[in-house]
């Protein structure tokens, strides 16, 4: 560089040294990398801003965990942090080893870290060579402690045997990493293979169900509880001549067999095989022994947890019906259940399908769908759920109507918990009971404190169906449960669910229902596929009656039941119903329930969710409110609302009809400027396209219609 020339930028100097720069803000969760850092991460060589998850996917999981600990330590000691980072490809294989130095800072206001650092590729000496030994010896103690800390944390977080084996296979020991692993268990007097890594599928065959009396290192370790170290093939051949041919074809040069001991009992053995000679110095044996102890503890915990999950899953499944592929004429049913991921993974949510007297569902007879939620997520909740389910089945099988079934069930549950000596453990349950008549597609619904059902119409419109209800079961033995009758149109699908489906992921009832509504509107498959889609939207893939990956992340139990009437739009089969496009909702507003006027307004807005003119929607809602209020104020009768949308998009017509049993016909009045009422018919005449009042045999019906206007193109 000549005197007087400007100094190069820092980035240019670092790039010339094949060193990248990165910046990480935990407040935003974003990582900015320059072109060189992006190249080292295996990404396109351009400056980029990435999410934490994108960067994490490129790093070895053990190294990612170490970064967090080093950042905290560097902030506490006000020093520069340094970590060794292995870069992974899409297949999970290490493609390069890098070193990162960084200076972190902690923002007290944001409660977040700001980290600026460098990233540089390093060339590691060949393991087992003198250079490799010297490289490790220089900072052996620090590397060993960091490795054991990371290994212990990763093994402690593993929840299943498969996860433990994946962690063990990914362990990179300081200076002498094995390239072949096997974990042996014990069944009776024989060895079993729990898992292996670094071998081809099928290579474990000769070692499976090997007798403990066999002249094999792992068998000797289990018999004696002492480790076996073999530094060379010659040592292996001379010490175990009978089983040496089994190990020879793997081409390894050194082996370590260590006991897996828990509470003084040897539960198996761990083999670490090396592709290069290892002397197994005291330091190396110390690391291997410590890893074997942690591995044994992790396998013991995972095995106990899996046994517990199998037990509780079996308990929960035994309390749930297996709906199976039932051939219900004109209808289909799908259901899913997933217990909470915490504790014993049992809970109080349930569903059931009950054939009612007079026939079976497959023969066209009536049946009942029940869904409910007993308070709690423990064995007691599961036990009460099982007893309550049996009681509901008994009452339904006696031929009682839905309201009587819930009244008896409430009295039954109250009697079970009222005399409980644990006064702080009184339980109640929510429940939704639906009596279904497949012949007419009518539903008689009784509800005990449970979320209302929702219906997806044939054109994809989704409405909640407000139903009359009472207190949750078990609170008041004399509670009443009024019944609501609905009729399912061809192509409609009804959703029944517990609140776990709605509120999972930090949602409340409003935001959670918005998420569920979007899934119902967009999904085009059959009820089985829709049930899976609902669970996937909550927390990931799941299958019928599973408690797998989804359950591990659950905050509350989930129960889902879908009832679909065959026809165009439900995806229930080959049945196609040719009919005019009709969208309909019906609601009763009683004299003592003026608050249901707001429910009726919401129902109408949901019915008109895709209406192009917001002004027409507002007009329809206003006129509906006027007609309902007119019935409640000027008569002693209840009001029945029927709203329908007919026709094709662009020329649809909305008809709203309010019927009551009073013979008093409405008449137009001329209110003064200060009058608070009397403008209802004037508004209808002004805003509706057509309207009228029709006398009925008993009572009258006032109706109005609006025609879909042509949208103006802006």
Explain this structure to me?
The chain is of the alpha+beta class and 714 residues long. The chain folds into 4 domains: 10-123, PAS domain (Beta-Lactamase, 2-Layer Sandwich), CATH 3.30.450; 146-313, Beta-Lactamase (2-Layer Sandwich); 323-565, Phosphatase 2c, domain 1; 582-707, Histidine kinase-like ATPase, C-terminal domain (Heat Shock Protein 90, 2-Layer Sandwich). The protein is 33% helix and 26% strand. The protein is built from 19 helices and 27 strands. A 6-stranded antiparallel β-sheet has the order 3-2-1-6-5-4, with helices on both faces. Helix 6 (140-157) packs parallel to helix 11. The longest helix has 37 residues, at 282-318. The radius of gyration is 35 Å and the shape is elongated. Mean pLDDT is 80; it is low at 133-138, 541-554, 574-580 and 710-714.
Question: Based on CA inertia axes, which overall geometry fits?
Answer: elongated
CATH architecture name of the largest domain: 4-Layer Sandwich
Task: Report the span from N to C terminus.
Answer: 63 Å
Poorly predicted sequence stretches spanning 5 or more consecutive residues: 133-138, 541-554, 574-580, 710-714
Mean pLDDT: 80
The main sheet orders its strands as 3-2-1-6-5-4
Helix/strand structural class: alpha+beta
Secondary structure: helix percent? 25-40%
CATH superfamily of the largest domain: PPM-type phosphatase domain
Rg (CA only): 35 Å
Beta-strand portion reads 25-35%
CATH topology heading of the largest domain: Phosphatase 2c, domain 1
- According to CATH, what is the class of the largest domain? Alpha Beta
Number of helices: 19
State the total count of DSSP E strands.
27
Overall domain count? 4
Enzyme class: hydrolase
Domain PPM-type phosphatase: 328-565
Keywords: ATP-binding, Hydrolase, Kinase, Magnesium, Manganese, Metal-binding, Nucleotide-binding, Phosphoprotein, Protein phosphatase, Transferase
Catalytic activity: O-phospho-L-seryl-[protein] + H2O = L-seryl-[protein] + phosphate
